[in-house]
């Protein structure tokens, strides 16, 4: 997967900054964030979707997610979170290397209180 941007995430010249990692996955923040503290957990091995993760990768992602929450609570102090995967093109996945979005949410943002399914519940579909 030479052209996969997530197979080669590093702190050297790309738009992500690795914050925390373990032997199976990394957590990185985008250099330009739409929401303060928004980042992704990515398996080190190329896996197209969450359904392709090994049991060890699931457990490592789980452990890292809890470390990420502690980090975000300390450094960003969010009021809530959205956490989730997009799977497949129709599911909104744009980079076909599994990645778990960890999105801090804040009471003062314009979309506060609007969860992942908000747009499905409106008449704008």
Automatic annotation (TrEMBL):
Xref: InterPro entries: AP-4-A_phosphorylase, Histidine_triad_CS, HIT-like, HIT-like_sf
Motif (Histidine triad motif): 97-101
Domain HIT, first and last residues per copy: 5-112
Domain of life, source organism: Bacteria
Protein's name in the database: HIT family protein
Source organism of the structure: Paenibacillus glycanilyticus
């Amino acid at each position: 997967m030479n052209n996969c941007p997530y197979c080669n995430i590093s702190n050297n010249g790309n738009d992500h900054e690795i914050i925390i990692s373990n032997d199976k996955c990394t957590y990185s923040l985008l250099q330009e964030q739409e929401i303060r503290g928004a980042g992704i957990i990515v398996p080190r091995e190329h896996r197209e979707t969450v359904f392709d993760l090994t049991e060890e990768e699931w457990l490592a992602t789980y452990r890292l997610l809890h470390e990420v929450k502690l980090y975000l609570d300390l450094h960003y102090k969010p009021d809530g979170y959205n956490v989730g995967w997009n799977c497949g093109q129709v599911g909104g996945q744009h980079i076909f290397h599994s990645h778990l979005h960890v999105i801090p949410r804040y009471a003062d943002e314009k979309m506060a209180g609007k969860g992942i399914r908000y747009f499905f519940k409106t008449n704008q579909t």
